[in-house]
Every structure is written in C-alpha cells, then in structure tokens.
Description:
Layout: H1 10-22, E1 27-28, H2 31-36, H3 43-50, E2 61-63, H4 68-80, E3 85-88, E4 105-108, E5 115-119, E6 124-128, H5 133-142, E7 145-146, H6 159-165, H7 172-175, H8 178-181, E8 182-189, E9 194-198, H9 205-209, E10 217-225, E11 227-228, E12 232-240, H10 243-255, E13 262-266, H11 268-278, H12 285-289, H13 293-305, H14 312-326, H15 328-338, E14 346-354, H16 356-372, E15 376-379, H17 381-388, H18 398-402, E16 405-415, H19 419-430, E17 435-443, E18 447-457, H20 461-482, H21 500-504, H22 507-518
Parallel strand pairs: 2-4, 3-4
Antiparallel strand pairs: 1-2, 5-6, 6-10, 7-11, 8-9, 8-10, 12-14, 12-15, 13-14, 13-17, 16-18, 17-18
Amino acid sequence: MxxxxxxxxxxxxxxxxxxxxxxxxxxxxxxxxxxAYARDLWPRGLIGVAAGDPAPHPPDAIVWPTSxxxxxxxxxxxxxxxxxxxxxxxxxxxxxGALPIRGGLVVDLKRMRRMISLDKQAGAATFEAGAIGExxxxxxxxxxxxxxxFPSSIMCSTFGGWLAARSAGQMSTRYGKIEDMxxxxxxxxxxxxxxxxxxxxxxxxxxxxxxxxxxxxxxxxATCTVHPVPEVRLLRGxxxxxxxxxxxxxxxxxxxxxxxxxxxxxDELDSFLHRNEGTKKSGHEDxxxxxxxxxxxxxxxxxxxxxxxxxxxxxxKKRAMHxxxxxxxxxxxxxSRLLPYAQGGCLLIVGFEGERSLAEAEAKAAxxxxxxxxxxxxxxxxxERWLAHRYAVSFRMSKVFDAGAFVDTMEVATTWDxxxxxxxxVRQAVSPLAFIMAHFSHAYPEGCSIYFTFxxxxxxxxxxxxxxxxxxRAGLAAATRVGATISHHHGVGLSKAPxxxxxxxxxxxxYRAVKDVLDPSNLMNPGKMGLP
Length: 532
C-alpha cells in the first residue's frame, strides 16, 4: 500500500520542510497516516475501502497545531505553496466533508482540546475546536453543567466538527442545534487572518461561518450556552396506529409550547423491528431492557442484512439477504402494504428533563395531549431502552459492508404541512433502489426532520457506487421537489454538493462571493458545499 502513494511535489516538499522546522514532531508524511487521513466515514468512500482502495486521494501531509496562532501560520505557509488545506476533527462525518480531493495538507485540530473557561453565572463555556464531544460533556458534568448536545457520534466527533457541519443532538427540540447554542467563535480565514465573531450581532457573520465546513476557514474555538445538569429525566414510549397520527401528535405537542428533550417517531418498519427484537425470549429481564430502538431494531436489521456464522442456516440467511437486496422494490412494497396493519403501530419516544417539578408538569401535560391524539401509553420501558443504546448507530454498520452491501442515512427536513409528502416522496424515489426505513426526530413548532436509513448492494464496486449515487440523486431530487432542505444536521460535504445550487438558487452566488473574499486562493477544503 505504501508504494501506491505518490511523493509530494517539490513545492509541497518545501512547505513540509518548513512546517517540520516550526512544529517538530507534529508533522507526518508516513503512508499509514496519509491513508488514515484520506477519508472520513462517508459510506461511498467505505465502498472503496471494502474493495481494497482506502486512499484514492491521500493528503501530502498532516499537521497538528496547538493554538489559533499556529493555525494562522499554517494557512499562510500553505498559501505560499499553493497547497489545499482540509480541516480535520475526528473523521466521523458521513458526507465526505473531510476528504482531500487534491492532496494537500490536512490540519488536525485534536491537540486543541481544552476547556478555556466556564462562566456558571452566564451559562456559557468556551472550548477549543478539537475537543471530542464525549470528553467535552464529561468535563462540563464535573462542574454540574451540560451542553445538551448529544449527536449519535458524540464519542467520535469533535466540537469543531459540530460547528462546521451545523450539528444537531438527540435533544435538539429542548436545547436547540449547535448554531442555536453558539455565542461567539474564533475563526481563521483562508488568508490566515484571525477573526473574533459574536453570534447575534448585526450582521451575524458567526452564523455564516457555522455550517461552512471549512470552506471559508477554520474554527479554532467557540463559546456556547450550557445548562445545569438536569435534576430528573422522564422517558416514555407511546404507540400510534398510523404514522400520520404520530406526526400530528408531535405537531400539537410542540405548538402547544411544550419542549420535550427527546421526541422520536419510528415508521412502521422501524417500529416492527424494534418490537420483534423486544419480544425475543430471554432468561433475564435486564437483558430485554438493555435493548432499544437505537440498539435492537438497528442491530437486528444489520444482522439481517449481514448474517454471521457458518453452516447451512447462515448460508441460507446470506442468500436470502442478497435476494432481498436484489429486489428492494418488492421488499419495500410488501412492508408498506402489510406493516400498517400489524399490531403495535408506530413507536414514539418522548422525554422531558430539567428541574423535577417542571419536568413532571410538562410530562403530565404531554400525556394528556398524546392521549387526545390517539396515543397508547407504553410506559417507561421503551424510553429507557432507547436511552441505553442511543449511540449504538455509529458502531453497527461495519458488518453490512463486510457482507458486501452498504448502508447510509439521509436526513432531510421541512415544515409540518409538507412533512408527510416529503416522507412519501423520498420513500417512493428510493424504494426501487434500496431497502429503506425512517424515523422522525429533531422536531420543532415549525417542522421536523426525517432520518431515512437505507441499504443496498452491488455486484461489484463499480455497480455499488452507481447504485449508491442513484439512491442519493433520487432521494435528494424528491426532497427538493417537495421544497425540503437536503441537509438538517449531517452537513453537505461532497455527497450533497451537486444539489446545493438547486436548493439555494442565486444565494449560491452570495456564498461564492464570500468565499472569494475570505479564501481568494480557493484552497480551503476544495470541492465541498457545492463550491468549485
């Protein structure tokens, strides 16, 4: 593998030599590092990894700065060498946002991971961008605070990555997305100039940087709102006979003014897999309690798509999986026609947290509203099971790739009046190409996000990549026709870049003009966000 990686050209070689003199021990050009930093977790790239091609466009070097000033120096040095720069957090993005496509220099911020300050009276904390999310949360917890930001990738994503991709946590309905939390940020543009930006100022330039995915520069630290650790967390499960009834219940709940920390509605297939797993016989009650929607249904679905073991039964399961993925249209059609009539309906997880008396009052009011909407109270079990496995999704997908298939997620969002139309349009567009299910989460008084999960396989790498691209073209085209946004919280990167002009129209010209000012050499994270 090392022999397949080309040596840097002379100009970049001079840059690497200069960086090594400035930052001894913090620059690497070794083949293992260049391979490791040649990708993130974009599933299209993982198709190549599974085929034995882990680094189609490796960076020329990786550098680890330790301060904002060093980031500025690195950018200025790279400008002299006309070298592209790709900011890197933890590489957990699923849209290709951290992929080098022209070689260049990867700037890994993980050595910039300190908590700079915590103002308990103001409810604000300042962290460097390289802090891993789980470490950040644990540090706040030690002082009695929480950020309330819990993406499923919290163990393998960074604070800076959250800001760069406009991340949403699982409790965004209560605490907001990351752009709602940020108060100020420090940012180094593509000229090496350091900026201190206040969110809420007029014009709000900080919000222009949040979500820009390193195309305008590099966020090095930020101050965000934090909250006291909640006194109590109350989670329950509810069942609705039909998906539209569950969506209507959520809308009524939020437009009444209630702010649940957790609200997640699973469609019929997602709910069916959860119930099927939950009813498996077990010799110990706690074993059943340890499963949940983010563990049980996903783990079961993954095991169905990627059966393990040897012998006739395992071989039969693999053959059945391949046959099902060869005809996803038939499987999806059967699911859509039969599952609405299956016992149990659609599962809704609802949770409130905070000061005990307030959380209990909100939970009681929510129960009244959900019952009026036709919901059936399932008790605390489903909510507690969800909580126990809420991060499992980030660790379950490798078996599918090992079995020769691929799996991915597509998160789109729209207003309540278009939500069911969006769900139907994307399902209809993707169903001929992939096995698909969805849940509704990140809900607000104005609308909601739909999180589709799909799986498919190809006869070989080229066939798998063609099918993968076709799935995304079909799904995003359907979302655009409905008037939805093509990205709620995963970012844009390379995967959604072709659809940016269609969604944003002439506003893309404004973004390109800002890019010309802040990164006139067009060296910051090239090719992302629909930019040239």
